[in-house]
Amino acid sequence: MDFAPYLTLAGLDASQATHVAQRITSWDELHEWLDAHAPEDTTPLPRRTSIGTPFMETSWKTALKRRFSRLQEDGQPVGEEPLWPAVVERRRRVSLITTLFLTVSLTLLADATLTAEHITPLLKTAYLLLYSIMSYFMIATFAKLAIGSWHALRGPAGNPWHPAHSATEPRPDARVAVLFPVYHEDPARVVAGMIATAQSICRYAPEHTQHYEFFLLSDSRKPGYRIAELAALNQAQEACPDILFHYRWRTSNDHAKLGNVIDFCRRWGKAYEYMLVMDADSLMQGNTIHQLLRMMEGNHRLGILQTNPTPILRESFFGRMQQFAGRLYGSAFSYSLQAMYMGHASYIGHNALIRTQAFIDHCILPDLPGKTPWGGKPLSHDIIEAALMARAGYEVWFLPDMGGSYEEIPANILGFLIRERRWMQGNLQHARFLFLEGLKPLHRENFLSGFMGYMSAPLWAAFLIISAASMVSYLQTGRLAEGTIAQIEVPSIMMLAASVVFLFSPRILAICLNIKREKSYLFGGKNKLVLSTLAETVFSFFFAPLMMAFISRFVWFWVKRKSISWGTQQRDDEALPWAICFRHFGWTSAVGIIATAILFYQLQKVPAQAIALLSVASGHWLRPESMFIWFFPILAGLGASVLIARVTSRTFPFLKKAGWFMIPEEVIVPQEITDMEHWNTHLIASIPDPDKLQDCVHYALMDRLFYIKQRARTRYRPLVAQAVLTKIYNGEKLSVSEFMIALGDTDCVDAMHRMSCDAYAQSPAAFPQPR
């Protein structure tokens, strides 16, 4: 038996391995040599931290009472408070006043136009109430965008409080843990992102690699995934020898990603001053990461630095449109929010650097009283964590000017809606924190906006129903005269104008900022930039009613206390089968078809005299059937939802070739994306398929690199492994749970690998497999 390959994998060069292998003639001698000379597992020993939840009153009644009985806020600033909070508060008040003024003006104008006799006071009141609520939140978004964009024109250099101004080189003992929490994610894709990120750190900050260590935090329950994750991580360490990679598997996956991060803080929070929290699909440039560390080191008040991840790698029709929209409009909106929020920004849960001890002291969330979805651990915990960090006196900055941060988004409408339902449940839970003492006003606004962002869907549905019923009733009365046609036209035109101005202003602003030749080139050129924006805008008219219907349904489930879990996100571009489309979108198509039939039936009841009067009053432009033009996007979006879901989930290669929905990262591909795709291809070919347990077991038993790396992770545990070791020596089959126990014991790993190699060499059919 030639043991030289084992010695090479254990750290010797080829000549040393050949020389030493001449003195090793048996497996026992190899084991002795490995015990004495092989590198030990680099995973740091736990330095357990006691973690508790800071006091916070989550009963909104009690919190509201305390809020008005004690108006002072309890958050104590960390050190001397800077001047920017006063600037932020002034901009917030200007935005609030602007929003209130425009909302009241539009509501009064709508009230003045609704004077028809057939409209009952109750119906009119309901109409105006819904109109004012929806207008308020629509205008609030527009006001922040407009005011923030004006201040953002100066860029980071024009903001004297931007964290970049105080950045400094990190201290020698500063340590950053780069966390990748996973749950049944594709191990090849996750670890490929880890390798690409680590190599980028080595490329941009070669003298500072000692500051960074990577953790793969696994919540995976399936043994095949655990083996594949370990196999991929082994290769990551070989690919990046200057950076340490560690693996942690939780025996219980309580509270999903939040619980995984808290578990890390409990075990290693004292050892790492900072943690860079990632998602399974996250990818970051090394220079971006190091600049975040420099900012943290230069300002001890910074608690969270959040980058703006760029969506990448989508090929499906829906994915490309959303990717294009997020890259083009989202960046413009992000810059305005940075100017409006500064150090009171929000946090989106990944691609962000966090001060670990501050997070442990102030951001551990309690279990909300009551059953899920109203109670339990908040799903959208990131927004609350940002609010609690600011409540404690730390700064939370959202930095869209920091490029080199990437993520993947859902490739189809179904995946998008599944994610929205999880976010909705979390955002509705935020209402429990709305009156919490010490919160900054901007964070209270975020909670309220997030809550209303989903509650507005059923309100919008009710508004549309009331509008349609009012218009049909108005036509059926036959009391039309020249001049009264404005009672139909004006409210409709007002709502259309408000939608165009307030909802599509980010699109207009984004085009204006990127229409120059040198910028538009990165989006496929001027023509493709404008045409892609128009196409995505038209799609949004049909997609919005679909979202309205589903979110209204989700809200109804929430009212009935039907909870959901945070599962694995689909991250490929596979098209949705017709059966899946009919199963999930058939009901919305039915709603659209039925609503169209009802509207058509009601319009047939309009008297001939009313039809003639309507034609004359409108200058022969309108007939009762003209209502279908106004409601066409809504009815068509619902009625054709099955077709829309199917078609947009497909991939059309000609779109990318023609330059439609292009993003800069496709025109000039960053090195990190190229590296990630290279390592993803390599790992797919070299590690076992996590869904094929037999292949994973075969790999764990036979692969030399896996054996050497896994042996370093094991411990001698004779009491735990005694029964399993006896079965191995007797040639008995192991259960899956016994096999996973054996992978953690040194003697068991040695015995399984030796016996597997010997048996496989004699006869592959005799190769032992667990059940």
Automatic annotation (TrEMBL):
**Where is it mostly found?**
membrane
Q: Where does it reside? A: Cell inner membrane
Describe which pathway this protein belongs to, using the record's wording. Answer: Glycan metabolism; osmoregulated periplasmic glucan (OPG) biosynthesis
Gene3D superfamilies membership: Spore Coat Polysaccharide Biosynthesis Protein SpsA, Chain A
Q: Does the keyword Cell wall biogenesis/degradation apply?
A: no
Highest taxon listed in the record's lineage: Bacteria
**Record's keyword annotation contains Transferase:** yes
Q: Give the protein's recorded name.
A: Glucans biosynthesis glucosyltransferase H
Taxonomic source organism? Acetobacter malorum DSM 14337
